[in-house]
Amino acid sequence: MPGKLKVKIVAGRHLPVMDRASDLTDAFVEVKFGNTTFKTDVYLKSLNPQWNSEWFKFEVDDEDLQDEPLQITVLDHDTYSANDAIGKVYIDIDPLLYSEAATVISGWFPIYDTIHGIRGEINVVVKVDLFNDLNRFRQSSCGVKFFCTTSIPKCYRAVIIHGFVEELVVNEDPEYQWIDRIRTPRASNEARQRLISLMSGELQRKIGLKVLEMRGNAVVGYLQCFDLEGESGLVVRAIGTACTLDKLSSPAAFLPACSSPSKEMKESPLVHPPSHGCRSTHNSPIHTATGSRLTQNFSVSVPTLIYTGMGSGSAGKEGGPFKALLRQQTQSALEQREFPFFTLTAFPPGFLVHVGGVVSARSVKLLDRIHNPDEPETRDAWWAEIRQEIKSHAKALGCHAVVGYSESTSICEEVCILSASGTAAVLNPRFLQDGTMEGCLEQRLEENLPAGCGFCHIPYDELNMPFPAHLTYCYNCRKQKVPDVLFTTIDLPIDATVIGKGCLIQARLCRLKKKAQAEANATAISNLLPFMEYEVHTQLMNKLKLKGMNALFGLRIQITVGENMLMGLASATGVYLAALPTPGGIQIAGKTPNDGSYEQHISHMQKKINDTIAKNKELYEISPPDISEEIIGSPIPEPRQRSRLLRSQSESSDEVTELDLSHGKKDAFVLEIDDTDAMEDVHSLLTDVPPPSGFYSCNTEIMPGINNWTSEIQMFTSVRVIRLSSLNLTNQALNKNFNDLCENLLKSLYFKLRSMIPCCLCHVNFTVSLPEDELIQVTVTAVAITFDKNQALQTAKTHVEKSLQRASTDNEELLQFPLELCSDSLPSHPFPPAKEHLESASSNSGIPAAQRATSVDYSSFADRCSSWIELIKLKAQTIRRGSIKTTVTVEKASPMGEGNFRNRSTPPCANSTVGVVKMTPLSFIPGAKITKYLGIINMFFIRETTSLREEGGVSGFLHAFIAEVFAMVRAHVAALGGNAVVSYIMKQCVFMENPNKNQAQCLINVSGDAVVFVRESELEVVSTQQPTTNCPPSCAGGEVTT
Amino acid sequence: MTSELDIFVGNTTLIDEDVYRLWLDGYSVSDAVALRVRSGILEQTGATAAVLQSDTMDHYRTFHMLERLLHAPPKLLHQLIFQIPPSRQALLIERYYAFDEAFVREVLGKKLSKGTKKDLDDISTKTGITLKSCRRQFDNFKRVFKVVEEMRGSLVDNIQQHFLLSDRLARDYAAIVFFANNRFETGKKKLQYLSFGDFAYCAELMIQNWTLGAVGEAPTHPDSQVDDMDVDLDKEFLQDLKELKMLVADKDLLDLHKSLVCTALRGKLGVFSEMEANFKNLSRGLVNVAAKLTHNKDVRDLFVDLVEKFVEPCRSDHWPLSDVRLFLNQYSASVHSLDGFRHQALWDRYMGTLRGCLLRLYHD
Fold first, then answer.
1. Model-level pTM greater than 0.90?
2. Residue A963 near residue B65, CB atoms below 8 Å
3. What separation in angstroms does the CA of A70 have from each of A83, A196, A765?
4. Which of A414, A780, B163, B263 sees the fewest Cβ atoms within 10 Å?
5. Are residues A57 and A122 located together in one domain of the fold?
6. What share of chain A is helix, strand, coil (3-state, %, to 5)?
7. Name one Pfam family in it (chain A) (predicted).
């Protein structure tokens, strides 16, 4: 009996009128946890009842605490007939189970009904007393922290990054049970919501157990997904990266983008040591086995891709012995792991040594209807197979690990495509196991890996390359080899040297497919997949070159299967890496060279393309310094050797298992226009309009080349569904429709957000689904962040000043601070001499110093930096020395009080009681510092209507539902005492309509990390007013009032 | 390719002021798009008509969802569904409750009933304001009226508290409620020259001085119906006004009053002779208006009477406003010197307000 859950129902407000006669409601509340139910008194005739109940106490196992949601039902009492349900609130009490997170959940929750939406609010207080702390880790995995954030959370330090954890649970979908024929839609929806809530609780607990077995204390980059497989069941699966995290006792000064922990940080007293002897042999109350009737009787593995650089080049032989040593050490650290995968996309400095390229694997499976409880592991086996494949691809690239790893599925009827992708990489073993071997290797690392280009160097042996690649000496350090193009699924490393700005690059593709059943269908799909991958890749490559860039980050390729088509959508952020060679242009070759007018047309097109490239270079400020060819020794292109880019439909065989996407030996990309298809491709290349001026977009966390973010952010979700005219659908028409859909959607976003200019759309996440034959649905979630064009210099100034303060107060940190300096404020001019920098920053001119970045040693830099700071100090004397130290003490005393203070100090409206909760898909909040992680938010909602027209049609219905989902997320965060959700993601938005019946249904799954943040500007206010504003802890956790 | 569904939902609800204006003005989506195109927005932003259409639809949908909350503004503040910065909330409310001068002049003083609502078609045609907008404005009047009609305390405060309007707008609504409750006639042809502002000004003076609420904290008759403090005129006061009749009925008193006024104003008034000639008529007019106020019908005609009995005669003699002011001041003050007249307080309560009203009503 390790826990006591206490719940108090305080009041309700804005309840709906349930009694037409009196226009009032006789409301009462049922509080249910597990199998125990309590009821409040009936509060007669009021729309704003004050129950003020006693504390309802549930004595429960901590296993149940983890699995079960608290279920609160508001009902209208009816003397003569059955009580009518008003709505429900599900509260996940997991955040109360670890000591560092929230201590109480208290606040107004929207009362939600799956048919009517939000119907008023209820004020609830929830607390948990864990009886025996010693026992806490034994039976369950209470205490393991979960983070959706795919980097090490801001106020923690990674002691060890253990590696991949995964789990899945299977059950029958209540919607497809026989009982669904006789129960109401509401009952069915609620059964589903409850089941998924239960399953995610169980899943999280099981993952937690695995983490404890690995002696970790946290899961970072936790990604949980649902597969709605219809009649064959419901799968909830999750992956993540197990870590041992230390809470930072003295959080460093604000670091907007990186804030990466480093070894100089002191040990924290708040460490949760991984408990030993946690050999958990738990008995799950949930029957994983019973529901899993998923069998595999058909499976097609699909050719896999390895994206990396391409081209031909001269061989070199540098850095061999070091690489070998590194590989050896890391391998030993990774070998014990089944899958050396990491769901992280951003890493502590020094963690990522080399990046090989993108590895991905897909597999087409047939979902089986036959109930087969004896084979519950089918799903596990499917994924294991795919992961194995990924692992072997990584090996082929000379890498022993995969980072930025993710998994996804696309289901249509009984066919399911499983996909996994990641970036093959070589990692520094220091973070992977206990620090036994730190010493010498680290030394070497710092000597050998100049910041900004190390990760670009090829990990594989150039004499034994896995594919033909075009290698050159690194343009940065000129010691190691680099490919000419680099594709990755991770965020841009913070120390990477980038020239100019980045941009969102998308490849879009549709392929018609015949309607078929079962095996035939699966075969047809798997035959199409390689071509799709190939074309998506070609498009990405072309668009990248058209932008004059040489690397892709955050690459995500989604293949969606529908009844009669396949859709491919790849999104990534293109950048120009200083270490990689300048990309060649795109050449167009005609097929019939004798035709004069045709020739003219070709040259016209060529001119257009060249113009576009030139324009893009200007737009994204890409002006790499001219480096004489002799020094670099890059191969001079030979036009004769250019091979043609082949259009592949006709000549590729169906039996390919490895698809080589490198296009042979060439420096420039050649597009051959040999049919109308190709013509259109070229056209579509040119139809992608750049965002209007003042707008940038990327799908990574931050935009390379922009660092002066202001605090204004706007997270949004936009959904579009188009109906294709079913008449003579061709691939071309489809492609055009799909392309237009995406482009128009982007245009709409730019228009809507025009008031935020200058601004950048970050973390742009497109999801495509094919809900019906002729419907295409695209869902976009992103955040718009404004930035200040003129404040670049000032930001740099204040930041450097802070760094100096820190350096002077704490000498140990001296080594660390230049790194931060360069990554935060001056990524493109890492170590320029003082005056030169001032000039260049103020004029916002090119990047003359970039190439010299790597050769500067730290000590001399510190000298120069301080003299520069002297110069700046004359101008800006506003920031007091030592202010940051005081801040830290306040914060430790009561971080919550500080949150409250923040709210009080900026009274926006005297009589509003609703606190502002920010939401962002990013892991940070610009201009603010995250002081506390309160726990994971993982919510699943179903909304259904039988009066679609009355609710404003499909748009009105979905608009209201998404707004309600946002509201419920915000309410939960506020009740936890937080004021923001970071790493927010809408993982699923399944929309189904039946206009003829006037019905529609939608399922939404969202997740994120609830946090407390403090504005940077207020941090200083707090520190100067410290004695008066130190809020007593008693106000912590209360309702966020403003 | 047709768009089946097209939505945009921000964590902070986006409010486009221009589109809000169009929505409030009752334009359909297609009209609004056309108007926006004409405003040159496409050229400024490089957007396409389709983008504009989608954007307009989106905003209209948002406003439609917000409308339910705008009907009870405190709900807008406490609701959780739309995260809107307080300044934007205030803007939404203020604009929603704003009304057109042309419209309010049509319905001011009319009963806010279904019957009037049926006439909105005509008002729409007459004023050129869309029927939708007329309906919104009418429903706003009616909603505010219903809520504060039976409430104790200051009318303006009640309106502000329940509808979170700015002071200025709350005062206007107080006037609208006051006029609707007392059904003052404002639509007659001879009243057409008066603006809503003129009436609102008078309403404010009357609320301050002539209603039950004006009497003070302690109502004289706790048993009587004192609930409608600010909305209803003080019946007792109206009854008492009959006493003023002696000012014109008693010939001596009238003569004395006249001579007092004339002595004081001689040489100061440009229109002295006209005033002297008209004094008895004007005084009779003003006092008779007071004496008749016991009848509801005459209360309704208050403004008609004032214009007929005072404004028009003066205007026809081309009194300048400064002379009107001098005359009214002297006219009210001189009564204090009439020894035989005992109702000085009553006179001040009546004439103080009336003087203010008349000065406001006196223009072309």
1. no
2. yes
3. 21, 13, 32
4. B263
5. yes
6. 30, 30, 35
7. YbjQ_4
Q: Among partner residues A723, A952, A963, which is closest to B64 by beta-carbon distance?
A: A952
Contact indicator for B291, B265 with CB cutoff of 8 Å: no
Are A723 and B51 inside 8 Å of each other by CB? Answer: no
Output DSSP code: residue A24: B
B8·A751 Cβ contact <8 A? no
User: Is the separation of the CB atoms in A987 and A141 below 8 Å?
Assistant: no
B-chain CB neighbours of A909 within 8 Å are 77, 86-87, 89-90
Q: What does DSSP say about strands A296-307 and A658-659: parallel, antiparallel, or unpaired?
A: parallel
pLDDT tens string A890-933: 333 333 333 333 333 333 333 445 788 999 999 999 888 898 89
Say if residues A1004 and A988 touch (Cβ distance below 8 Å).
yes
Is residue A4 one of the residues assigned to a domain?
Answer: yes
DSSP A713-728: EEEEEEEEEEE---TT
CA distance A280 to A66: 15
Q: Are residues A107 and A204 in the same domain?
A: no
Shortest Cα–Cα distance, A112 to chain B (Å): 12
> How many other CB atoms are there within 10 angstroms of residue B233's CB atom?
21
CB contact under 8 A, B86 and A971: no
Residues of B whose CB is below 8 A from A692: 45-46
Tell whether B252 lies on the interface with A, counting CB pairs under 8 A: no
User: What is the spatial distance between Cα A807 and Cα B141, in angstroms, rounded to a whole number?
Assistant: 66
Q: Which of A780, A825, A640, A679 lies closest to A253 in space, CA to CA?
A: A825
Domain residues for the domain of A242 are 144-249
Same domain, A361 and A482: yes
Same domain, A349 and A413: yes
B136-165 in b/e burial notation, b at 16+ Cβ within 10 A?
Answer: bbbebbbbbbebbbebeebbbebbbbbbbb
Q: Which residues of B touch A925 (CB under 8 A)?
A: none
pLDDT of residue A862: 38
The closest CB to that of A963, out of B47, B81, B85, belongs to: B81
Chain A partners of B6 at a C-beta cutoff of 8 Å? 719-721, 955
**A686-738, pLDDT tens digit by residue?**
667 778 888 889 999 888 778 788 888 999 999 999 988 776 678 888 888 89
* A718 → closest Cβ in B7, B64, B83: B7
Distance from CA of A120 to the nearest CA of B (A): 8
> Which residue out of B6, B11, B57, B77 would a mutagenesis test of the A interface target, given it has the greatest number of A Cβ atoms within 10 Å?
B11
In this structure, the answer to whether residues A23 and A50 fall within a common structural domain is yes
- Eight-state DSSP code of residue A789: S
Q: Which position has the token pair 């097929």? A: A591
Q: Which chain A residue's Cα is nearest to B75?
A: A14
B108 SS3 class: coil
Mean pLDDT of chain A: 72
Q: Taking residues B146-172, report their average pLDDT.
A: 90
Confidence band (pLDDT; 50, 70, 90) for A105? very high
CA distance A993 to A163: 42
Q: How far is A205 from chain B (nearest CA, A)?
A: 31
Shortest distance between the Cα of A724 and any Cα of chain B, in A, equals: 5
Residue A543: inside a domain, yes or no?
yes
User: Whole-angstrom distance between the N-terminal and C-terminal Cα of chain B?
Assistant: 61
Q: Classify residue A700: in a domain, yes or no.
A: yes
Question: Do A349 and A385 have their domain in common?
Answer: yes
Q: Is residue A427 part of a domain?
A: yes
In this predicted structure, what is the pLDDT of residue A714?
Answer: 93
Provide the CATH number for the domain around residue A32: 2.60.40.150
Q: Which of A110, A911, A962 sits opposite B9 (nearest CB)?
A: A962
CATH of the domain at A153: 3.30.110.70
The verdict on A49 and A11 lying in the same domain is: yes
